[in-house]
């Protein structure tokens, strides 16, 4: 983990109860499944914060309300809120969200990841970095960064 925490004492919230999703009796294996806000939240809620042993949900970095899904147009936007305005891990958190969704969703989806307006000192720079394909690809070639992302994502696969 990181030494010299930016936010040494974050506020930790209670996790929301998981909703059980019932599958219909007959499933057409060739039908295209629709993806909704709840499904996206279930994919990302357990991602661990890079600095703390808490999930992004527990720190309210992500909430269900901050997820927009347009399944018809294969578009998804996640707006996350760093715990502090000068969070040095904002790009890592955004990268974790992007990698988790790249691994979980069909490739037809355009994923837009943003810092909530007014919640980060370098919001525009972070948003540009998280949504630039070349920058994301370069970041994913860094073995140290991949190890950090994989460590954050591990609880979300349990």
UniProtKB/TrEMBL annotation:
Keywords associated with the record: Chromosome partition
Pfam families for this protein: FeS_assembly_P
Keyword hit for Manganese: no
One of the GO biological process terms: protein maturation
InterPro entries: FSCA_dom_sf, MIP18, MIP18-like
Gene3D superfamilies: 6.10.250.1280, Fe-S cluster assembly (FSCA)
Domain of life: Eukaryota
Residue ranges of domain MIP18 family-like in the record: 38-109
The family this protein is said to belong to: Belongs to the MIP18 family.
Protein name (record): MIP18 family-like domain-containing protein
Protein's organism: Davidia involucrata
């Amino acid at each position: 983990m990181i030494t010299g925490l930016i936010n040494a004492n974050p506020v930790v919230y209670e996790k929301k109860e998981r909703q059980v999703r019932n599958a219909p009796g007959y499933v057409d294996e060739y039908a295209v499944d629709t993806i909704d806000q709840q499904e996206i939240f279930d994919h990302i809620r357990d991602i661990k914060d890079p600095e703390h042993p808490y999930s992004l949900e527990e720190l309210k970095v992500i909430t269900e309300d901050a997820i927009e899904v347009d399944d018809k147009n294969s578009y998804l936007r996640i707006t996350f809120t760093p715990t502090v305005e000068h969070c040095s891990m904002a790009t890592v958190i955004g990268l974790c969200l992007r990698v988790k969704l790249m691994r979980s969703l069909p490739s037809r989806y355009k994923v837009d990841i943003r810092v909530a307006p007014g919640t980060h000192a370098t919001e525009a720079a972070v948003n540009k970095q998280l949504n630039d394909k070349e920058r994301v690809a370069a970041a994913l070639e860094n073995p140290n960064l991949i190890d950090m992302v994989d460590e954050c994502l591990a609880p979300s696969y349990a």
